[in-house]
Write a structure and sequence with these properties.
Blueprint lengths: L5 E4 L3 H14 L2 E4 L3 H10 L1 E5 L3 E5 L2 E3 L2 H4 L2 E6 L6 H4 L3 H4 E9 L6 H5 L8 E6 L2 E6 L2 E6 L3 E5 L9 H11 L4 E3 L4 H21 L10 H20 L8 H14 L6 H7 L10 H11 L4 H17 L1
Parallel strand pairs: 1-2, 1-6, 2-5, 3-10, 6-7, 7-8, 11-12
Antiparallel strand pairs: 3-4, 8-11, 9-10
Helix pairs in contact: 8-9, 8-10, 8-11, 8-13, 9-12, 12-13
Length: 313
């Protein structure tokens, strides 16, 4: 019986989380890295996932910087930062055959459109995951929170084959509660609007997610940023099944539930690297222009995050 081949692009915190758990169940997992020396070290020492602060799970997937060495896969899971998407598109030519399904679980809106330049619509799926992980060290991640992983095809509509359902079953077997939907975009927008109201504020202030709730000025900025994104979404004809107040309450509940988390955008800024601001608040700005709307708060947040990233770098 043919063994399912799964490649994960990106050895970041979520890449380690998914690779470790999937490898534990299926073994035939490969990771594509872009740093040769790091790839060699990870291939030698393996990956470590720390669950619930103490339990260690080890995995020893193949790790390579050469897509052709990994070869054609059944599934390719993209977990690089959204701003790195353009750089990995060429690698998909060696990883993908006519039946390969590519799944993006990246933040924001726009990364999937970049992948679609190389991968046909029928072979591309998008998703959101509520799992959180923090990178503790090279090759080691701490599983910081669990939740549902939702998957859907890049072009919404009924499934024409069972590959996405098969991938969801793989995730379920690996311990990730998963669901396949006909239209992924409401879920992408909901997560986007949560990130719009949390990530840039933490990146600018250096606060943890929950600390936003302690400052009325920051809550006012959060409300305005989320409102602008919500209005853009409505203008584009999207619906997440919530009115604005319900959405804002949800954003603040996420702040509370993830109170001790350091957002990925703040982590990126502290490392002095680029952030995903262009695919989060920047996506709101771009789509607002197409929709003929003004989003000054989101524009300002983009400028401030980019400024602090440059200063930190």
């Amino acid at each position: 019986m043919k063994q399912t081949k799964i490649a994960i692009i990106g050895p970041g915190s979520l890449g380690i989380l998914f690779a470790t758990r999937i490898w534990q169940q299926f073994q035939n997992v490969a990771i594509l890295d872009y740093k040769k020396e790091r790839a060699e070290r990870l291939a030698s020492k393996g990956l470590t996932l720390i669950e619930q602060g103490e339990t260690e799970i080890r995995a020893f997937p193949m790790v390579s910087t050469e897509p052709r060495h990994i070869g054609e896969q059944d599934f390719v899971l993209v977990l690089v930062k959204a701003f790195q998407t353009e750089a990995i598109v060429d690698s998909l030519r060696s990883l993908c055959g006519p039946k390969t399904l590519v799944i993006s679980l990246q933040n924001g809106i726009g990364a999937g459109d970049i992948i679609a330049k190389e991968v046909s619509d029928g072979n591309l799926a998008l998703g959101v995951t509520m799992h959180g992980a923090n990178k503790n060290d090279e090759g080691t991640a701490i599983h910081a929170g669990s939740g549902l992983t939702i998957l859907g095809k890049y072009q919404p509509g009924p499934l024409r084959d069972d590959r996405l359902l098969q991938f969801a079953r793989i995730l379920e077997t690996a311990g990730f509660q998963s669901e396949v939907v006909q239209d992924i975009y409401p879920f992408l927008w909901k997560k986007l609007l949560v990130n719009v109201g949390i990530n840039p504020i933490t990146a600018i202030t250096g606060l943890k997610n929950g600390q936003i709730l302690n400052y009325s000025h920051l809550l006012a900025i959060q409300e305005q940023a989320v409102r602008e994104g919500f209005e853009v979404m409505l203008r584009l004809g999207k619906d997440i099944g919530m009115d604005f107040q319900q959405l804002l309450d949800f954003v603040r509940q996420v702040c509370k539930d993830t109170g001790d988390n350091i957002s990925s955008m703040l982590q990126d800024r502290l490392r002095g690297g680029p952030t995903e601001i262009d695919f989060i608040n920047g996506a709101v700005v771009r789509l607002a222009r197409k929709a003929g709307l003004s989003v000054p708060v989101n524009e300002t947040l983009c400028h401030l995050v980019e400024f602090y990233s440059e200063v930190s770098g």
